[in-house]
Every structure is written in C-alpha cells, then in structure tokens.
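EI: anyone free to look at a 313-residue chain?
SC: sure, send it
EI:
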Amino acid sequence: MRVYNAIDDFKKVKNPVVTTGTFDGVHLGHQKIISRLKDVALEENGETVLLTFYPHPRMVLFPEDNELKLLNSLEEKIELLEKYGVDHLIIYPFTKEFSRLTSVEFVRNILVNKINTKRLVIGYNHHFGRNREGSFEHLKEFGHLYGFEVEEIPAKDIDHIEISSTKIRHALQTGDIKTATAFLGHLYSITGKVVEGLKLGRTIGYPTANIVVDDKYKLIPADGIYAVKLKYDNKVYSGMLSIGNNPTVEGKGRSIEVNIFDFDKDIYGKDVTIYFIERLRDELKFKDMDALKGQLVKDKEDSLRITNLCESV
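SC: here you go
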C-alpha cells in the first residue's frame, strides 16, 4: 500500500476506485466497503484509493471536547488498511478551512481534479462537505455531471444491530470485549511504552510492565482485569493485564499493568502492543496481599485457558 500525506503527492492511477471517510476502527462495516472497493477495482481493471482525514474532524471542529476517544491512532489505522488490501491511502490534513468546502467543491476539487475518480463506493448514510450537506443523492447528481459512478453500501448488520464506531467505543468503555471484537472483526489493541512502576508485583511473584499510552485520544477500555496477548520485538506472548487504580495497595492514579507469561527481559523504554482477548473481572480491593495473590493465581489460570484458545494476532 502506498501512503500519501498530502493530496498533491498522489499521482493519478488507472481507473481509480475510491472511498472516503474517517474509518476509525476499520470495523466490519468498513471492511465490507473495502471488500467491495477491491471487487469493483478488479471489474474496472483499476486500483483502490481510500481518502481519509487527519486529525479526526471532531478534534478540529470541537477542540474543547475532552471526551473524544478514538479506536485507532493514525499508525494503527494505516496498518489495518494495509492488512485489508487497500492499494493507495491518501491522508488529507483536516483543517477548519477544509471543513468549509461545499459538497460540490469537495467533489470537483478533490475527487475529480486531484484523484480522477472512476467509481466511488461509500458507506450507508454517508455525508460530506460543509455542515455535512452532501449525501448519496448529491453524489449521484455530481457523478452524472463529472463522469463517475457512485455505489452505496447498505448498513452492515449483525443480529439486526448496526455496526458503528460509536457502538464499539461504548462496548470497550463498559469492558464488553467480546462485542467489540465481534464488531471490529479483529482484536482491539493499544500500543504504549514500558515505564518503571512501584515494582510491587514482583514481591508476590507477578512482576508487571507498566504501560503508558501517549496518544491522549486513544480509547483505553474499562477498568478491570483482562486476558491479553502482547507483541514485542515481533514475538507474541500471553499475559494478564490490569487497568485501574490498584486499590489493594492504594495506588495513585489510573495505570495499565501487564504480567507477561514466560517472559524475563528488560523492556523499560520499549514499545509493546497489547491485544485484548477477554475481560476476566472487575478491579477489586482485597483484604491483604495474600488474598490478592490467591486471586492472581486464578486470574493466570483463566488467562492461560483463554489465550491458548485465541488464534495468533
């Protein structure tokens, strides 16, 4: 996949089949659009082009919104789009000035003049342009005017529940990892740097790596204990992870700590990626360290059973 950080870097390709959107999460609904994009490109003897935006529009239009959380960092989104087979990814810088483009200006200036769109494939209820004025009906009119075809993908349902990034965010924020995974079509992950912690875990036989996620917009799942997989140095390990305030030892502030099974390396300052498999339980306050250790024995048994059943990440 070729990645372009500016629209002017994109060189016109033969019969570009295009889609556009934020694609946060690259969930099953997005994957259906990409799959159709690839099928159409094969029919047209063309190449797939995905136009996305960074920063996320809400970061620019509502900078005071401290509640905004995203499923993907830009790097994670790029990795997923490449995994699902997009040929060309254009990352368009989203600014307030860009947000003022009318729907016809967006189509004419970018989809037609810059990309030379042959076919446009969009998701259900797609809107674009200033104040989200553009719709599928507008695109059909513009297609006739500028010489490209438009196709709309209907809503993607699982058990009659429409998939959306918002619903996946809600599932993660309530610790419902199974629903999030089902909607995403892949495991949810976070990437962060290993930093020094209080080192209390090693005193009871469960040393943990403390993870700091620098991206303030990245969604961290609900507090609790999770069975996880961890990728470090291109190798995958099983583990159990705690998100919360460590009430048994009166922790100060929310932390992310992972106990990595069968692992004994110094990884301070290194980046690791955590893949969430299943939430085991709530974070609890135990009467003493022995009670905590007894629970950790069970948590490890449960995590090993769950992670052993999980396919490679």
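EI: The mean pLDDT is 90.
SC: 👍
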